[in-house]
Amino acid sequence: MNRLPNIKHSQKVIFRGKSNKFLFICKAVHQMFWFAVGTIGGVLLPTLFLSGIAGHFCNDGKLNQPILSLGICLIPIIITCRITYIIWLRKRQFYTITIESITHEGGLFRTFNQKIWIVDIRSISCHSSLIQQILGCGNIIINTAATRQGTLVLKNVDNANNLYKTIENFRQKRS
């Protein structure tokens, strides 16, 4: 279900989409791997330490089983919460390009909605790494004269060159 934001009926939506799914998944898997390593190290080591101390005082020098079990159970719970957060974040982030504006919206706990008017664009560029070129996507960097949040980067957008040319055409028509 792809709901459009509240846009005036006079504005024609040119593009509404997200970043490239494959690159998003690759980045998420990479981040999750290191998050899992950090979580295991950050939860398991203190759990072993606490169960050892508790076992020394209460369990004749053996590890305290309830504390150890609790710490080990926390690891998959924390990792599952992180995976759920990443999935929700992906579902809520969109790029919307209309005849008059470009909008980047998203977020889960801290939502954002950044809008740049086509007439305010000072420069626009399109960059693609080798992997992005293979996958047919790229980054579109849009700069305005604004002093705060004057740059909008559309990351890993599919068909970035075509989208770049479309934005550039609308920009030239407006100026």
Brief summary:
The chain is α+β, with helices and mostly antiparallel strands. It is built from four helices and seven strands.
Please give a structural write-up.
Helices cover 50% and strands 26% of the residues. It is an alpha+beta fold and 175 residues long. The strands form 2 sheets. A 4-stranded antiparallel beta sheet has the order 1-2-3-4. The protein has a 3-stranded antiparallel beta sheet with strand order 5-6-7. A hairpin with a 5-residue loop joins strand 3 and strand 4 (112-117). The chain is elongated.
Topology pattern, helix = H, strand = E: EHHEEEEHEEH
Low-confidence residue ranges: none
Broad shape: elongated
Distance between the termini: 35 Å
- Biggest sheet, spatial arrangement of strands: 1-2-3-4
- Sheet with the most strands? 4 strands, antiparallel
- SS summary, helix count: 4
Overall residue-averaged pLDDT value: 88
Helix content: 40-55%
Structural class: alpha+beta
